[in-house]
Amino acid sequence: MKAYDGMYIGGAWRPAAGPDVIEVVNPADGQVIATVPAGTVEDVDAAVRAARAALPAWAATAPAERATRLAVLRDVLVARQDEIARTVTAELGAPPKLSQTVHAAVPIVVAGSYAELAATYPFEERTGNSTVLHEPVGVVGAITPWNYPLHQIVAKAAPALAAGCTIVVKPAEDTPLVARLLAEAMHEAGVPAGVFNLVTGLGPVAGQALAEHPGVDLVSFTGSTAVGRRIGAVAAAAVKKVALELGGKSANVILPGADLARAVNVGVANVMSNSGQTCSAWTRMLVHRDQYDEAVELAAAAAAKYGDRIGPLVNAKQQERVRGYIEKGVAEGARLVAGGPDAPREQGCFVSPTVFADVTPDMTIAQEEIFGPVLSVLRYEDEEDALRIANGTVYGLAGAVWAADEAQAVAFARRMETGQVDINGGRFNPLAPFGGYKQSGVGRELGVHGLTEYLQTKSLQF
Ligand code: NAP
Ligand code: MG
């Protein structure tokens, strides 16, 4: 057990203002692995002041210098990749292989992409008799969740730094250790004091103080829709920019003629990965009635194969929440074909990979984000019916379409109210804009669209 007493503010590890700490628990075995300070309003204020003080100089650096820092940051993350993976496994419970190939690897790619974009993005352009300057928004307050704990910070910090902004991060209370590691990496990469700051703490205390701080120009939040709604309201009242990356209930639409076995297997893997704790997970599988029984059988078999390869959920509260949803699914008349509400192990926050058949669009498990390894398989009559079901939630973050003919899949995808659609198993693209339609959020992350979130424009007329 390690007791950390500092927070990274103004380029140094400073003791917290108050005495409270957060226990970091490994959800695989319930062991307390570390404590970190629970930051207060005072700590947030110190961090925002440090970020403000650092802003003018950082905003004035040449983009090439910012690109260099981000390239060095990427190299430091590469050098520390194993340590990052071990840390995510310890505090989130992710299986070691997933920690390596996703939790540690994706932030490296994203940091690298912003090193490139900082060097190449046209921060100045001409239109008519004007020069348009793309300038940093200012101080960013970032509030992040635990499910992809490093990725979600890097997806904000890298573009913010590339744009010339400075940033204060409040990571999730469950996963502060990998956030501390990132602060060390920033330091090692030579990012100037005050450009990146980290305040660990509780959402309603440190998170709220950051969202409300008048010294913050842009609040970028990833997490639940309930908290996002409040943060959006606070930001609007202060006329601050806000970016919200919220929940999802994404549809995996399997059109007749698609490779059914592949579509089902990839779909099940998509939901079970990271124990279902993925905002963009395809948690609703939509299958034509003629192929429905076969798809259900395939999905149940695929889920059953997961066994010990699935990690625990992040904490006991999430485990209870997910088991509650499974019980609700049963109570509302859905048919369990794999898994169920009983904990598969005595120790740790595990939930069995679960598949429900005979799910109808109005059921709770077809409407609400469960954030666990739970798949709902729904039946549709024809394409119009599939589209109605796919678009029939308040969310619109991601999705998938499978068809024999790519053009048919694309035509369907165009009619989906959602921010990303993978066609016939298309791969994750770290440069593609990621973000929500409808209540899945406001704004986009990653690639050039993610960079422009951190820029504001000024026009000079000649
Ligand atoms: P959450 O409460 O929204 O947490 C996200 C972040 O917001 C954390 O850093 C949290 O701090 C902070 N926060 C909480 N209350 C706040 C407040 N009043 N003001 C400012 N910041 C605040 O999410 P959760 O409770 O961890 O998870 C609940 C559900 O949210 C999940 O089951 C899932 O459905 C959804 N979720 C979605 C995503 C996503 O990527 N879209 C990610 C995580 C969760 P603490 O860590 O101290 O709570
Ligand atoms: Mg919370």
UniProtKB/TrEMBL annotation:
**InterPro entries for this protein:** Ald_DH/histidinol_DH (IPR016161), Ald_DH_C (IPR016163), Ald_DH_CS_GLU (IPR029510), Ald_DH_N (IPR016162), Aldehyde_DH_dom (IPR015590)
The active site annotation covers 245
One family from Pfam that matches here is: Aldedh
- Classify the source by domain of life: Bacteria
Q: Does the keyword Cell inner membrane apply?
A: no
Location of the Aldehyde dehydrogenase domain: 13-459
Statement: the UniProt record of this protein carries the keyword Oxidoreductase: yes
User: Keywords for this entry?
Assistant: Oxidoreductase
In terms of Gene3D superfamilies, this protein maps to: Aldehyde Dehydrogenase, Chain A, domain 1 (3.40.605.10), Aldehyde Dehydrogenase, Chain A, domain 2 (3.40.309.10)
The coiled-coil segments of this chain are none
Give the family this protein belongs to, as stated in its UniProt record: Belongs to the aldehyde dehydrogenase family.
Q: What is this protein called?
A: Aldehyde dehydrogenase family protein
Provenance organism: Streptomyces chlorus
